[in-house]
Amino acid sequence: MLSYEQARNKVIEEIGKRTGPRATAAVSVWDALGLVLAQEIKTDREYPPFDRSTRDGYAVRAKEATPGAKLKCVGEIKAGDTVREALAPGTCVQIMTGAAVPAGADAVVMIEHTQREEDVVRFERAAQAGQNIVPRGREAAAGQTILTTGMRLGYAELALAAQVGAVELQCAKRPRVAILSTGDEVVLVDETPGEFQIRNSNSVSLAAQVRIAGGEAVVLGNAADRVEDLGEKIERGLKEDALVLSGGVSMGKYDLVETVYKAMGAEFFFDAVAIRPGKPAVFGMCQGKPVFGLPGNPVSTMVTFELFVAPAIDLLSGAKARALPLVEARLGEAMKEKPGLAHFLPARVEWSGGAPVVKALKWQGSGDIAALAKANCFLVVPADKEKIEAGESVSVLLRKDVV
Ligand code: AMP
Ligand code: MG
Q: N or C, which terminus of the chain has less Cβ within 10 Å?
């Protein structure tokens, strides 16, 4: 059985082999959050475009602003003012944050380090040449590439594009990911379940996870645990860029997903992973499309999506697979788990006593959505660990949607 790292690498390798360039579209910078850039963006001029003051204070010649020195203030420069005149020796000029530093001046002294009487400014400490000034072109040269194909556009990347006037961006189209749940007991979320039925919460979490991962969710509803119904709905799902099923991959008599995938020509790369929850997770290619079968218990579905489906969506978006958001923390309370499988336990990590400390939450197993809704991470217990003492260092998989 593959470890979760091996299984994840398998997904990346197999999809990486097969994905060509994505279809692209021009998207407004206002709408491009989370998309993957499909062009290079270059600066339209130098950044900053002028020597920029980073403080409110006085522009000076550094060697003149010695402790106790007095300089005549000959004017003021606001952010946005046109600055053509050089600073005359023996003078200073009041300057605001974001304003252009005049020629001749080589330092800005913070207003907090000066005293002013009428038009005379007294300096309290020695100024260093260059202080509080970002010279023209220091952040980027004119025509420099600042964003490249394959980068994911977060708020900083969008601001950078906006800064250089790139208001329309060529982006990869979001891969369309079909979501299909299975199970005779499952009813739509807006239906009233019978006494022994449950609502289709997996389709809701999966659609959210697809969206966060950068895909477009195409929710296909629920298939009954019958070969014909499953087959029809899988066929519909194969029209999209990838297909994610939940449920029906365990050892039960009515767990038919693998059988039906196989009948439709799927090639599997794994059908079990050494993790709990999520062990029966399935990944293959079917008619040229990546297909997943995730176990139906809601927390299993969520964990296996993060581990195996999210990197697939990265690749299908024209980006590299992002690393798992794993960080290190100290274990808050000693714990024991059965060895053999890596465990992903709903947990909370909090800053405490100068370090991140993680505690597993009480839960009733992988059907317990309420426990995960209280968690901000999964505590990862390695497969070879049986006991972990309080204070030991452990890995934590962050829930990137809430932290
Ligand atoms: P399965 O993987 O089909 O054996 O299902 C495992 C458990 O998850 C069972 O208790 C199912 O009732 C539950 N389950 C399956 N599909 C869903 C779903 N779409 N939403 C919520 N729970 C589900
Ligand atoms: Mg089922």
A: C
| 225 CA closest ligand 1 atom index | 3
For 223-236, letters b (16+ CB in 10 Å) and e give bbbeeebbbebbeb
CA distance 148 to 81: 34
Take residue 397 and report the two structure tokens written for it. Answer: 């998989």
The 10s digit of each residue's pLDDT in 155-198 is 999 999 999 999 999 999 999 999 999 999 999 999 999 999 99
244 CB within 6 A, ligand 1:
no
Mutate to test the pocket of ligand 1, among 297, 300, 372 (most ligand atoms within 8 A of CB): 297
Closest CA to 178 of 259, 323, 286: 286
Give the closest residue (by CA) to ligand 1 atom 14: 296
Q: How many helices (H) and strands (E) does the chain have?
A: 8, 28
183 alpha carbon to ligand 1 midpoint, in Å? 7
Half-sphere exposure of 325 (CA within 13 A, CB side): 13
pTM greater than 0.85 (yes/no) = yes
- In angstroms, the Cα distances linking 351 to 13, 148, 324, 348, 356 are 36, 35, 20, 10, 4
Q: 135 — alpha (psi -120 to 50), left (phi > 0) or beta?
A: beta
Are the beta carbons of 142 and 165 closer than 8 angstroms?
A: no
Closest residue by Cα to residue 178 from 138, 143, 223: 223
Distance from the alpha carbon of residue 246 to the mean position of ligand 2, in angstroms: 8
